[in-house]
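Example record

The entry below shows one chain as it appears in the dataset: sequence first, then structure tokens.
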Amino acid sequence: MRYKTLLPSITAALFTAGIPFLAFAEEASAPAAAATPSLNTGDTAWMLISAALVLLMLPGLALFYGGMVRSKNVLSTMMHSFVVMGLIAVQWIVIGYTIGFGEDTKGFFGGLNKFMMNGITIDTLSNTIPEFVFAMFQAMFAIITIALISGAVAERIKFSAYCLFAVLWSTLVYDPVAHWVWGGGWLSKLTPAALDFAGGTVVHLSSGISALALILFLGKRHGFPTERMAPHSLPLTLLGTGLLWFGWYGFNAGSALAANGTAALAFTTTTVAPAAAGLSWMFAEWIHSGKPSALGFASGVVAGLVAITPAAGFVTPGWALVIGACAGVICYLAVLMKARFKYDDSLDAFGIHGVGGAFGAIATGAFATVGATGLIMGNTGQFLSQIIAVAAAGAYAFIITCILAFIIDKTIGLRVEKEDEIMGLDQTQHSESGYNLF
């Protein structure tokens, strides 16, 4: 055939032009070599910013919680958020990071191969970013998780007991659960793996259910529920809400661990869900009590942020709207349960983070359509994996918290004396006052 006679001429012409045709053909037919991870400066810059945004959530949480307590406890409440910036940052460097992200040990916790950040240098990469950046981003999650618990026990816990509890709880609860989901542990090895984009199970469910356990040991505040314990400064709470929402963009969009389309999706869903939740809480309260409140809208926004956290990069904006709208109503009803069951969750840590985190994790298994499929796509297995993760993490966190609370209560004591509580923890625990106007 004619093309057979032309082939040698074509090949010669290609070589003459500097195109090694045969070598190119051999290269194309060879299997592609695995890409070696390389530093991406765009991803690194985004993750540095995201880590800083998550740390900004701590002052935001301090304002959010501080405004909701009585003025005699504002400093002590805010200190619960600030002191863990020191305690858990140190704990994370020494032991926390290796428990969460060290070499897997039977699926339950990381080994000690990264004790004190051993083996990590400025050239060590975690995918496309320096491992130091990844470790510090994860450190911010560990710091804020324990601070969330403080909202349940505000106005009555000893500061010394809180500090000890914070270190022990982070080491024995948060770090192992983080390993289960994100560090190669057993929940990540389910078929299909449990989904938790940014911490619905690891952060919010574990802290919320632990808050409930701690309440059982502390008991109610003196005068609860007959005495009026109104927030002393809702403007502080609203400012804190705004800072939390702002920082949450780093929390959720940063969990993509790259500056990419997934981060953009998570950024979008982190706008939609809290907006819908704030409105749904507000309207539910308006219908139920006759008036919408600033505190209600702020609480709804946080509930929406909590609920979308595990789903942020797995659902479309439309489903994020549904998750947020449902979360606002569900968490509002959960907060109302305090009056029926008569437990004193001071600042609704369980009602918002525990219930909202559990709902968000299960909703992820129902509505995931991006990068994973959920129940609406016919994937029943994913829905079941989410339920297993919620049940396992919730039960583990509750049991270990009960044990820690019992030990601390029997040694140094969990709760301040009645007289100290009546005087206020700012004076009795810190010899300071939040306001010196007179």
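Notes for this example: The longest strand covers residues 104-105. The first helix runs from residue 2 to 16.
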